[in-house]
TrEMBL record:
This is Glycoprotease 1. One of its GO terms (molecular function) is tRNA N(6)-L-threonylcarbamoyladenine synthase activity. The keyword Secreted does not apply. It comes from Corchorus olitorius. It comes from the Eukaryota. Homodimer. The keyword Mitochondrion applies. It catalyses: L-threonylcarbamoyladenylate + adenosine(37) in tRNA = N(6)-L-threonylcarbamoyladenosine(37) in tRNA + AMP + H(+). Residues 493-532 form the RecA family profile domain. Coiled coil: none annotated. It is found in: Mitochondrion. It holds the Pfam family TsaD. Keywords: Acyltransferase, Metal-binding, Mitochondrion, Transferase, Transit peptide, tRNA processing. Its main location: mitochondrion.
Length: 532
């Protein structure tokens, strides 16, 4: 791939080039006066690369600032193909520069999700490979276009599953290479935020965004296109993962995906019937944790003798009622955690950017109507507006990739056409882990002070912690730890403990035989500990 896409992982398109390197705006008169090489067909939007510049040199002229790019009417006629394969949906869409959605196609892997109880990366990759050509062709057919009518191709390069990302990147490069089209690399989570600007024309930078999905919980302050401050993220599991696992343990139909299934069942239940505790109540930051809540749900299900092998459709009336109560109680607490974090994030954001007027909520979980209703109450306290894309644009889709591609194209951030055929040893640039912006100092995940430290203990079966033990062999209460139970991840045998340094020293030295102790944040004795 071009120099833009082969930067080391520590760099990104979001903070790519010094501001001194700006795009050279080419006026129509200038274009006409030059001896040009035209790479677009005559019936498509204009995009010219004068021979004096050369295609390869163009990447060094891209700007990271929107303010250096003057909008022009030609951008309204851009026609961009967006390709998305970051996880378990194969999606493509064609969008015009004026915001018109010409087509949208999504191929779901719902049957695979139901079969494996979640996303199996290798199976997901094979499913993408089987349908990617068909999905892209269907998007073109629905728009009554061919590849020759396109202005550019936008594709997700991260974050996501590397095997799945490669399928989309390879397809995008084939189309762009064969038809001499520029290619635009898109950050998946940025696209979830930016698609809101397609639907809400009044949404201007800066704004606050909550991005919630199966793999991500992010609170970001969007200063401008490509300029973000990360206020909070998940320290373990995302809310979508918690919804999916709860749906699986309750025996729900995963072909609908876990979130909608839990939301539907929760409408039948009593949200106050099961007393789940809200995660991280004592943490005065904007980070998230859902591992402990998952464990609470799992134990509540076990205490009621609910058998996930019995599907909800076959459950007795009493059994269904119990499942509904758990679903409703889980959803209430999961969303309360979102509300608390969002309130603090809004306060932080207003200190940094007092002019913000909107909270954007996007990602798959943003389709949940209960989530939207509760967060609407939150923003009203601060006289902000809640902006949520329609449900079909909250889940992974090609429209958000195409539109984010259009916004980046306007800002001069795109690569020249790739070769028609990549070398066999070509290394595709995919970024499974790709942070969105810099972490806000007050929100760092492993912030350690004298009064507070974060310890992560690997909890072995039948081990003792501070003299307390549970009947199922999983330690839950540690002397001096305020929230050990709230943050215990039974599935992965991890416990996240917030306590004072002195108390943690007592824990590590009080009857626990440590096989391994590492450090976090340079504080000795705090880290990942295996109990023996």
């Amino acid at each position: 791939m071009s120099s833009l896409l082969t930067l080391p992982s520590t760099a990104s398109r979001l903070k790519l080039v010094p501001k001194a390197l700006v795009a050279i705006p080419l006026s129509l008169n200038l274009i006409k006066s030059l001896e040009q090489t035209r790479i677009r067909p005559s019936n498509s939007p204009l995009l010219f690369f004068p021979p004096s510049l050369g295609l390869n040199s163009l990447t060094t002229h891209f700007s990271t600032s929107r303010s250096t790019v003057t909008p022009d009417p030609f951008h309204d006629n851009l026609v961009v193909l967006g390709i998305e394969t970051s996880c378990d949906d194969t999606a493509a869409a064609i969008v015009k520069g004026n915001g018109e959605i010409l087509s949208q196609v999504v191929s779901s892997q719902a049957d695979l999700l139901a079969q494996y109880g979640g996303v199996a990366p290798k199976m997901a990759e094979e499913a993408h490979s089987r349908v990617i050509d068909q999905v892209v062709q269907e998007a073109l057919d629905k728009a009554s276009l061919t590849e020759k009518d396109l202005s550019a191709v936008a594709v997700t390069i991260g974050p996501g599953l590397s095997l799945c990302l490669r399928v989309g990147v390879q397809k995008a490069r084939r189309v762009a290479g064969n038809f001499n089209l520029p290619i635009i690399s898109v950050h998946h989570m940025e696209a979830h935020a930016i698609v809101a600007r397609l639907m809400e024309k009044e949404l201007q930078f800066p704004f606050l965004a909550l991005l919630i999905s199966g793999g991500h919980n992010l609170l970001v302050l969007a200063h401008d296109l490509g300029q973000y401050t990360q206020l909070g993220t998940t320290i373990d599991d995302a809310i979508g993962e918690a919804f999916d696992k709860t749906a699986k343990w309750l025996g729900l139909d995963l072909r609908k995906s876990g979130g909608p299934a839990v939301e539907q069942l929760a409408r039948e239940g009593d949200a106050e019937s099961v007393k789940f505790s809200i995660p991280m109540k004592q943490h005065k930051d904007c980070n998230f944790s859902y591992a402990g809540l998952k464990t609470q749900v799992r134990l509540a299900i076990a205490s009621r003798n609910i058998d996930a092998k019995v599907p909800i459709s076959c459950a007795s009336s009493q059994d269904r009622s119990s499942r509904a109560d758990i679903a409703a109680s889980f959803q209430r607490v999961a969303v309360l955690h979102l509300e608390e974090r969002c309130e603090r994030a809004i306060e932080w954001a207003l200190k940094i950017e007092p002019s913000i007027k909107h909270l954007v909520v996007s990602g798959g979980v943003a389709s949940n109507q209960y989530v939207r209703a509760r967060l609407d109450h939150v923003v009203n306290k601060y006289s902000l507006r809640l902006v949520c894309p329609p449900p079909n644009l909250c889940t992974d889709n090609g429209v958000m990739i195409a539109w984010t591609g259009i916004e980046n194209f306007r800002a001069g951030r795109y690569d020249p056409p790739p070769p028609a055929k990549d070398p066999e040893d070509f290394k595709y640039d995919v970024r499974p882990r790709w942070p969105l912006g810099e972490e806000y100092a007050e929100g760092r995940k492993l912030k350690v002070s004298e009064s507070e430290a974060l310890g992560i203990l690997n909890v072995a079966s039948h081990s003792r912690c501070g003299g307390s033990e549970m009947s199922n062999g999983k330690s839950s209460i540690i002397d001096g730890a305020q929230s050990a139970w709230d943050m215990f991840d039974e599935e992965n045998s991890l416990m996240h403990i917030t306590t004072s340094s002195a108390d943690l020293d007592n824990i590590l030295g009080g009857g626990i035989h440590c096989k391994e102790v590492t450090e976090i944040g340079g504080v000795p004795g705090i880290g990942k500990t295996q109990l023996g």
